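REQUEST FORM: STRUCTURE PREDICTION
Request ID: SP-0412
Submitted by: Lab K.M.
Chain count: 1
Length (residues): 313
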Amino acid sequence: MAFAGVMAVAMVIDALLGWPSSLFVRVGHPVTWMGRLIEVLDAGWNRTGDSPLKRRASGVAAALFVIGLAGGTGWLLQNAMPSGWRGTLIAGILAWPFVALRSLHEHVAAVAHALQSGDLVAARSAISKIVGRDPAKLDEGAIARAAIESLAENTSDGVVAPAFWGALLGLPGIMGYKAINTLDSMIGHRTERHESFGWAAARIDDVANFVPARITGALFAVLGERPKTALACMLSDAPKHRSINAGWPEAAMAGALSVRLCGPRFYHGELADEPWLNGSARDPDTGHVVLGLRLYVRAMMCLTGLLAVLAFV
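STATUS: Completed
RESULT:
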């Protein structure tokens, strides 16, 4: 089975359909199923009375269990596929829920539309669905900056990384990766409860996203209007980011749009003094969110085309 072809099919389906709300109401979503399992393990295995070492060991076991279950399910499904184009098509349909291509565009576009209409209340509501910072403290420029940063980072986590691991390993790859990403989003935080229990989830996620983050950055840089400038910005500023991966797509996007990103922001009422990416540039505005979405569409079309070519090669 041509795994790259499977991913190309999944991305085309998701671009056309997304995950319909009627389907979500009836069956939910595979990622929410993973989330429920993680919640059960977190409640049962992450005991506050245990030592940090024991909680870390429990977190390792929980992460390996969820990833193994997801990857193993993908392996069983993949081995049940018929050969040839029928197997590629069926596997692409099964991989479809794990690619968040359309939903990412819709969430960021909702922010852009609210800003364009001058409705800051709606814009704050829309941005609160995709970032963790306090929306009440965000003005128009800060909302635009948050939307562009979320678009850049989530392109890597939500689209490129699943496509990368799916093209490499097929259904076990994409389902295993989605388990990794869901674990990190739910328990991979440096909070009192999850500092030890979520340690493994965060470290595994860093490894899984290492290559996809740099691919995403390269796509944004090369397909932007200023490739050399964007590449230079990515190479110089990405290492400044607190995340070993998120800085690459964000710095590339900052260079491509000629705006500054990252910088200080409020999380849960506390100021996080983050460094600027492309710090000498101007702050983004509503128009830059629209330009970022256009760059995102070009990058995703290019990625889908590359996957289709790899499938035939």
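NOTES: The chain has 14 helices and four strands.
Reviewed by: T.R.
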